[in-house]
Write a structure and sequence with these properties.
Clc chloride channel, mainly alpha, Chloride channel protein, membrane, ClC-type_chloride_channel, transmembrane helix
Amino acid sequence: MKPSFAEKAAAWRAEGRRVLALLGLAAAAGVIAGVLTAVFGHGVLAATALRERWPLLLVLLPAGGAAICAVYARWGGECGRGMALVFDAAAGRRDKVPARLVPLAVGATWLGHLLGASVGREGVAVQIAAAGASLLTPGLQAPRDKRRLLIAGVAAGFAGLFRTPLAATLFALELFHTGVAQYDALLPAAVAALTASAVSGALGVRPAAVALGAEAPAFTVETLIALAVLGAACGLAGRLFVELLHGLKDRFGRWMPGAYQRIVLVGALVALFGLATGSRYNGLSEGLSAAALAGGSLYAWDWLAKLCLTAVCLAAGFQGGEVAPLFTIGACLGAVLAGPLGLPAPLGAALAYAAVFAAGTNTLASPILVGLELFGGEYFGSFFLVCVMAYACNGGHSIYPQTPLEE
């Protein structure tokens, strides 16, 4: 027997209420994420400014690492698993991302940046935003809606920190499964990302948009070959970072099973390296990205030094993110390769900025949108080709514990 019109209308009303509740909570998650990421981002910049003012703070990095270990051992519980908790919650293996992760991850990242650990910030921004979204999941009944709200929280964390809401939306949809975007969460993710970006912007967070001052290249055969080669190089660089990071985590665990021993020893080595190199590769290394995008002077090995130091710090247990270092690695690599490939250095840096991000995270649409939101839509064709090549050449590797959708 077919349902009556009244029954259909009742079902439509129920579905409408469910969708409105989800979108309302997504907007609330965006507000929470916007505030949290603004406070977090300003704190990272303040810590960086203090370290640049007093470079000898580097000598305290081993002690800072020991303090991070002690705090996590006493109060962290599972929080040391970081992004794995977000993936577990999205897969339904746990109910939520614990709220105590917020002060622990934020404090540990601030301390790491203050003392010179070569780490980023995006991973922590996503984690704390996901924890904020988890506070709202009791307002939803269906497990699929709780998962969508968590995905919206991830989008909000990325958007609140980087002020790129379109890229953030696609990043959250692409993040969890290999080669699959979860478009059923598109609307709540977009609402949360746009809200978070607006809130963090009102609180003083500025996007890292750059005017390249270079014309979009004409697609001649020579240019297409150059862009393809650049994309392939970025794919290999991203894969190198992923494999080095995961490999060092495994080897450090076997060579130095004690968490204190591991982070203190690595902290001491990183501090010595930082003192010897003038802190060139410590912290966010935003000076390297700025120089690359402006066509400034760089060493040919800057990208590799930043890659190795970041992998070492994260593998040792310092808290932070991987995406900002991927941006820096890419910008430096692109600036170095641009000359031999016949491309303007700022354009090569911008293209690789997005493409190494694509390779390191095993995402595609989001990096293309990062390029468009930060550097301009006139370069769409170039970003598309370079990011596609990087994505194709990374071998399906990711800094995150992605799984095939069927798993």
